[in-house]
């Protein structure tokens, strides 16, 4: 896709606002016929695109070329993009802080360019309004799911899986159910395992393990080991039995 020159006109520097953010650097923006535009390369670089020009060409649909005159009187031809393209670059960005950039643009950059100083969805195209409505609903759904995961506890089948995993771990540690160590130390080992488990996951019973912690819980039990004193006792009992 070749960059289309939609419009071309001189823009004096006093019409261009430079917005600075510690995380994203500087973004130059301006208002053209009542609509906000930003320097395309500033947006692409702030969003972590390694090849800013390529990202602009691939993702932006309304690129406008402008002659921008700097304070020294030199003219530069700059690509500027409307807010629709700004959000396209945000959506396509792989930068982990892209959402923070979106928040900054929505709450600081765009309101400063608008004559009424406030940002609202009514000023956007129907396409962008739909994007933000969907995004808002997605965030709300994610928040609800996160809340459920934090409060829901595991079901019976998951409880049984933890219990059976603990049984396997203890049997392996004691060298089988027929071992002397199993006969004499199994109760102690089970008590130590579950005591350690409850302390680690901050629950009063493994049955109250949070759903979000289930996979970690299985892994914890599989890799659990008693302290060195108990391990020494296990080895000692099993060695005695082998010489008996």
TrEMBL record:
Family matches, as SMART domains: Bro-N
PROSITE patterns in UniProt: BRO_N
Domain Bro-N: 13-117
Name the record gives this protein: BRO family, N-terminal domain protein
Lineage: Bacteria, Bacillati, Bacillota, Clostridia, Peptostreptococcales
């Amino acid at each position: 896709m070749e960059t289309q020159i939609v419009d071309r006109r001189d823009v004096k520097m006093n019409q261009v606002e430079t917005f600075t953010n510690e995380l994203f650097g500087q973004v130059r923006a301006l208002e053209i016929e009542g609509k906000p535009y930003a320097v395309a390369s500033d947006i692409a670089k702030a969003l972590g695109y390694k090849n800013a020009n390529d990202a602009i060409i691939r993702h932006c649909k309304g690129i406008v070329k402008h002659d921008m005159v700097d304070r020294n009187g030199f003219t530069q031809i700059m690509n500027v993009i409307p807010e629709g393209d700004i959000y396209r670059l945000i959506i396509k960005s792989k930068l982990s802080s892209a959402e923070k950039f979106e928040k900054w643009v929505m709450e600081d950059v765009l309101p400063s360019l608008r004559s009424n100083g406030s940002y609202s969805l009514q000023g956007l195209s129907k396409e962008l309004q739909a994007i933000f409505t969907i995004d808002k609903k997605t965030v709300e759904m994610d928040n609800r799911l996160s809340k459920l995961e934090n409060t829901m506890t595991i079901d019976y089948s998951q409880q049984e899986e933890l219990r059976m995993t603990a049984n396997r771990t203890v049997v392996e540690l004691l060298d089988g159910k027929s071992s002397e160590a199993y006969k004499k130390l199994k109760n102690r080992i089970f008590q130590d395992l579950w005591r350690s488990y409850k302390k680690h996951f901050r629950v009063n019973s493994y049955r109250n393990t949070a759903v979000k912690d289930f996979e970690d819980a299985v892994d914890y039990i599989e890799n659990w080991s008693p302290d060195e004193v108990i391990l020494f006792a296990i080895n000692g009992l099993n060695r005695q039995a082998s010489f008996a």
